[in-house]
Amino acid sequence: MTTSTMIERIDGQQQELAIDCQALTYSWVVGTDPVLTDVDLQLTKGDRCLLLGANGAGKSTLLRILAGKKLTQTRCCKILGQDVFMKPPGGVVYLGTEWSTNPVVRSDIVVSHFLDSVGGYRHKERRDRLLHILDVDLDWRMHQISDGERRRVQLCMGLMTEWDVLLLDEVTVDLDVLVRADLIEFLVSESELRGATIVYATHIFDGLQTFPTKICHMQLGGTPRGMVAWPPAGNPSDKLDLFSLALGWLREDKVLRKQKEESKGRVRGPKTDTKDRVTFYQKYDYAH
């Protein structure tokens, strides 16, 4: 039985795949080099997947495709058995960094009114639980609070309904250590008690040692390692270091990226030719 039937065999049992993404290739413009190539991501209900990779590896693009925010030419991405763009399923929540740049969330509006405007009053029990976890004051005014506090409001807003699949893209970067730890504990309980599936892209590994059940390494727009179980069979997580694993992969990514760019005549870092510098200062003469 193959994943095309959306069934995965685990310990002799059959489980329906919550996320089934196979051989996904995607380009910003048709005919140009793809930013994603043959990406595979299969997760069962209750999985917590850590999405690792260097900046520009394609993590955000993949998450936005899974969230149904980008049209792909092939129907190779399904969530809960439905095409993510043509027939997006309910129960999917995507939380990304672009939310904080929306002028609406920086306007003069009280947090309690803001949450009610997206249905908070219908989910009072979960909303109140998240208000405690995220340490949110309902009397805050959105235009007066910090980026970290605004991020807490976003998380409360996005998580207060019961979701089946959660897609997180670097949304904990603004949180302090305590709030982030309490949030991670909440997410683990959601996956264990309700069977919710989580894909979490982050570069911050503090407190994540026991969070993932699977790891997906994105490398230059692909997933060469496939799905890596965490901890690996026969190796308890306390014997392994998630940070060291990620660091090793990222160093490997940098070498491969450098080789790829050099083959196309591109080089990062300082240049020995000073022409650009001279041209710059001739164009912008600061003496006058």
Largest beta-sheet characterization = 6 strands, mixed
Q: Count helical runs.
A: 7
Unreliable residue runs: 1-13
CATH-assigned fold name of the largest domain: Rossmann fold
CATH superfamily of the largest domain: P-loop containing nucleotide triphosphate hydrolases
Overall average pLDDT? 87
- Count the beta strands: 11
What is the straight-line distance between the termini?
A: 74 Å
- The topology string of helices and strands comes to EEEEHEEEHHHEHEEEHH
Structural class: alpha/beta
- For the biggest β-sheet, the strand order reads 7-8-9-4-10-11
Q: Provide the β-strand percentage band.
A: 15-25%
Domain ABC transporter: 19-245
Organism: Kwoniella newhampshirensis
Protein name: ABC transporter domain-containing protein
Keywords: ATP-binding, Nucleotide-binding
What's this, in brief?
It contains seven helices and eleven strands.
Verbal overview:
The protein is an alpha/beta fold and 288 residues long. It has two domains: 18-91 and 167-264, Rossmann fold (3-Layer(aba) Sandwich), CATH 3.40.50; 100-161, no CATH class. It is 30% helix and 20% strand. It is built from seven helices and eleven strands. The protein has a six-stranded mixed sheet, sandwiched between helices. Strands 1, 2, 3, 5 and 6 form a five-stranded antiparallel sheet that branches. Helix 3 (124-133) packs antiparallel against helix 4 (147-159). Mean pLDDT is 87; it is low at 1-13. Keywords: ATP-binding, Nucleotide-binding. Pfam families: ABC_tran. Residues 19-245 form the ABC transporter domain.
